[in-house]
Specification:
The chain has 6 helices and 14 strands. It is an alpha+beta fold.
Length: about 240
Amino acid sequence: MIVKVGNTEADIRVEAVLSMPRLSFTANHFAWAQALMPLGIRPTMGTGAFWDQVNSRIFDQFIDKCEYLLTIDYDTFFTREDVEHLFAMALTFQCDALTGLQTKREDGRPMLTLKGMLDNPPEDKVTTVPASWFAEPVQEVDSAHFGLTVISTAALKRCKKPWFWSKPAADGTWGEGRLDPDIYWWKNWRESGNRVYVTPRVILGHGEYVVTWPGKDLTSPVFQWTTEFTSKHRAPETAWSLPKS
């Protein structure tokens, strides 16, 4: 990827990394192509049942060949300008890892853990930030995501292996109290001397599959999460239905 400052150009070696299922969404493929091709960033796809193992193998493949890796989730929507903005911020502020704001599926809250909260979460599990937090170009956090994330390979080399790891809860189940591989990654990342940042100036779309129902007025659609339908087996109350006699 060519980075230009004034009249000076530098070729920064970047490899985009995607852990992919056998089938994915066409709309996302076009979004990646339209964003990455003009920048000269090549995507490398890996497949397998375990995304963390796939990412580890591809990271190993390019750790000595690139200055940066760009991780992409196959359901993330972004533009060329988003990629350019992320790299401008990462290079300017020397970020070990940097991403934009993206929300959890079927939730709406940003996928990040505020600095100092991962190991010491509040009892009510609620955190807030002042409006001024969003005015800064980058903010250090405890954890983020891999939707569209710039990762410095120099920082990756400092990171002890395994890079990803999971652990069940104390009772041996995979419910509350478990350690997921992505959270382990960020804990390990910070413990290895690296830092992760989020820039509020880049927002990323998160593709979701919803059920669309006719609304009660038959002019506006009603949307329902697929997991809600599969658990409740019925349309939402706001969907069209015949008046009860």
